Amino acid sequence: MIKKSLPRNSQGAHTEFGLSGTMDGQSVSKTNDSDPPSDLQYQFGFGNHLSSEAIAGALPRGQNNPLTCPFGLYAEQISGTPFTAPRKQNQFSWLYRIKPSVTHEPFKPRVPSHGKLVSEFNQSNSSTNPTQLRWKPVEIPDSPTDFIDGLYTVCGAGSSFLRHGYAIHMYTANKSMDNCAFCNADGDFLIVPQKGRLSITTECGKLQVSPGEIVVLPHGFRFVVDLPDGPSRGYVAEIFGAHFQLPDLGPIGANGLAASRDFLVPVAWYEECSRPGYTIVQKFGGELFTAKQDFSPFNVVAWHGNYVPYKYDLSKFCPVNTVLKDHADPSINTVLTAPTDKPGVALLDFVIFPPRWLVAEHTFRPPYYHRNCMSEFMGLIYGGYEAKADGFLPGGASLHSCMTPHGPDTKTFEATVAHGKDAGPFRITNTMAFMFESCLIPRICPWALDSPSIDHDYYQCWVGLRSHFSREEASDESQTIQNGH
Question: What letters, b where the CB count within 10 A reaches 16 and e where it falls short, cover 315-337?
Fold first, then answer.
């Protein structure tokens, strides 16, 4: 079995590599002192047209689909947008592989069926509920469970069949995928691991994703999820008929928030081997189908294009915040957005609440009490969340739907007010919360509402809020303003 055509480095270990074309002709290796050593290399840049070869000369020169490709490879295009999409929106890649992906047996419904994946939300499979909802972390299962079987839908709206909408899933897994690959024909996956690293093999190469990082696996790519740390847990946002992009910066200018250069894309990696009984598991209309083939789907020796999997380290995010008084809206923390045709309205935003300084004067600094025409699903990767002193735990989640009131709990409010008007600068540390926010009202799956992890006492976190109204104090302040003080 040949897994890659690679030289050995000076220590005699294999080095993952590709002859990779980026904007400046380089590929880079992610290094972090807190991570285990890794020789994986990446290209960088969001939305760039990139290229990578695991064998020098594997990419055709001067055309995409020559009569005979180098090394006898097959040319295969994967299109993430219609052919006629405007050039600035068009997404596609050319893959040069040992055997084309069409070489498999017919798809059949997977047995056993999954039962907890939804891609078309209606009254038959989900319900509406305006109540504030919160879930405690779900325990890792005892029985062997891989990423596919551990994935379940919490809520969503719209339809993959109509190419408009989203689904929010969570996953718990304790074993790597074995002799099978997953392909999502419904939409893009944005995966947010909360516990345990994910080692993800894609048709474009390998990615290692740790808690505190995210990975986007575009619509239609085949991939395998391995668990190098054992049990894993996390969140997944899926969008139908759209792709994520960087938000416009407007008056912020050219810099801030997520920088294009910090998004990492894999380099070409391939394996050439016989794999009798290898299974492709395809999610199609929310249902799972399987097809058998006798080779690995990861036989892509070279590729080029702008439709590729990518990852991002959330610690690279550059927050922007108020420096005098009041709040910037939470949208200022948007990492990625999937827009709709209506300007400024998102099918789904991915927003984070990272470590940062709070310095606003005479301002209630935690998130304010709020009702929103958008719907907000929140998760917590690590630490605590600034608006919830108790109950919102890493691996847990909350849902505040359209126009449902929400905001800081009683303990947070009382503690903040107790600091008085002269609270100095304060740094929020050791936290990473996030939000999936959508203009579409979510329908909630029955197993999420009936889950033993649902927090039936969530509403009580606000019960202690009491009236602080004082007619005398209001009159005194009004008089002060009238006197010009």
Answer: eebebeeeeeeeeeebebbbbbb
